[in-house]
Every structure is written in structure tokens, then in C-alpha cells.
Amino acid sequence: MSKDAFRARLEGTAAAIESLLDRLLSSSPMPGEIARPPRVLDAMRYAMLGGGKRLRPHLVVETARLFGREDEGVLRAAAAVECVHGYSLVHDDLPAMDDDELRRGKPTVHRAFDVATAILAGDGLLTLAFDMLADTPTDPDPAVRIALVLALSRASGLGGMVGGQMLDLEAEGRFAADGKPIAGSEEDTLRLQAMKTGAILAASVDMGAIIGRAEDSQRNALAAYGRALGQAFQVADDLLDAEGEADLVGKATGKDAARGKATLVSLYGVDGARSRLRRLVDEARDSLTAFGPAGDALARTAVFVAERQS
């Protein structure tokens, strides 16, 4: 798949997700809801609309496409992942967490609104994600909907993203008596990153396989792809923080080094991290061999993750 063809697919999914989220985050209450307070709704829309590559939805959509599944239900599952991702960014940016002022080149939600509204907006996005997955339009088979809920829950909860964020705070020395960063081993760093970042990316691939009714062998191959892709994404992220320009990245850079935080760049150096990134891209692409040309979009995604500038 050419770079232009891939970009068209990525942008097409992003546009479809934007449209769906715009509808889901309208002012009209859904059945069973009482009312949608404007301020928190505005904050949720601010967090979710008008920006982002929509990489995680893209992974859901392209994986489901391997099995001939292309419909509104797939987009709903993809939008659910994006809502969890959006909630995590809103909460990560809070003063009690990373205390960031910029996200995607604009003020973070707690800066544009206030801290209390940002917390509630994140809570709203998280619950909306599982609302979508549990609802019949996502898939007529309740067993599939349950499997989707389970996959996203496990990836985003205590043993996944939430737990990874706690490990990240601990590594920064937040709870140490002297407040100094804790020097993590390679194993510690890889575990933290697999939980905080990699788990949701891998789950996006798995959810596409679930809704596409993949066979066990196909799902296993895609799980290997998802793990390698998640690691590649984090290595690229560490390199962007070390070398990227804030204007291009859309947020502050150089934060990891300033905090004395262990990353794959600090462990391996820039050249070592780049070498690891190339190996992970190859590993991700090799995992798709059984799918032939149908897997080209996912293979190209691994390259895109490694080459991204934001």
C-alpha cells in the first residue's frame, strides 16, 4: 500500500469517527438519560472533536476489515476506544498528574475550562465508551458485545492503562520520601509502557478481530502484531519527547529528561532506541504474513507509527 493510499484510509476513518462522535456528543439525551449539562458536554466535545490522528480507531477498523466487516458497528467500537483514549488524556493532563498546558496544540481541558469540569468530562467519556459497546447497534450478538467490553476493560483498567499510570507516577518519585525519580530497570520500563500505552493499542487490534469474528489462530497472530505495535509506538513517543519540536508534537517536549524519568531512550540512547524501533516494526509486519495483501494497511500502520512527528 502506498503512503498516499494509507493516508487516505487513515483520514477517512478519522472523518467517520469525528462525525460519529459529533452525533454521540449532541445535546439531546439518549434513552434513559435525564439531561446533558452544557458545561461538561462542551468540555467533552472540546476534548474529542477537531483533532487527533484517530490511530486507535484506525486499528479497530482496519483489523475488522480483514474479515470483511465494515459498518456502523465497527465505527462504534472504534469510537469507544477513542473515548477511553480521550478520557485518559484529559486526566493525564491534570495538575495532579502531568500538569500539562497544551494538548494537540491547544490548551488542555482543565486550562480551557477548570479542573472539576475536566475530571467530570473524563469520567463522562469513559462511561460513554462502555455505553456504546454494550448497546445493540454495535453488534447484534450479545456475546460479541460482552467480549468487546471485556477486552477494553482489561486494557484500560487496573492491570492495563490505569495501573501503568500509577507505575509511571511511582517511577517519577511522587511517593518517595525524597521525591526523587526511581531508576527503573529495562524490565520495569517495558512493563510500565506496555500497561500505560501498549495495552490500549493492542486492545484496539483485538477488538477489530473480535467484531470481525476472527478465528483463534488469526486472533493470536494479530495479538503479536498489537504487542509489537504498542512497543513501537512508545519507543517513537520517547524519541519524540527527546528530539521533537513542541510546535510539531503539539505538546511540551523534553519532559522525561527534566523529570529524570526512565525511558527507552535513557536506557538505550537515541541510536539504540531507533534500532529497537526498526526491529519492532519488522516484528509487527512479520506477524501479518498469514493475511497476505489484505494486511497491507496494518503493516503500513507500523511504519506510520515509527515515522510520525506528533
Automatic annotation (TrEMBL):
InterPro entries in the cross-refs: Isoprenoid_synthase_dom_sf, Polyprenyl_synt, Polyprenyl_synt_CS, Prenyl_diphosphate_synthase
Family, as annotated: Belongs to the FPP/GGPP synthase family.
SUPFAM superfamilies in UniProt: Terpenoid synthases
Keywords associated with the record: Isoprene biosynthesis, Magnesium, Metal-binding, Transferase
CDD domains in the record: Trans_IPPS_HT
Higher taxonomy: Bacteria, Pseudomonadati, Pseudomonadota, Alphaproteobacteria, Hyphomicrobiales
Organism: Enterovirga rhinocerotis
Electron transport found in the keyword field: no
Cofactor(s) listed in the protein's UniProt record: Mg(2+)
The name this protein goes by in its record: Probable farnesyl diphosphate synthase
GO CC annotations, alphabetized: cytoplasm
GO molecular function, one term: prenyltransferase activity
Pfam families associated with the record: polyprenyl_synt
Gene Ontology biological process terms in this record: terpenoid biosynthetic process
Domain of life: Bacteria
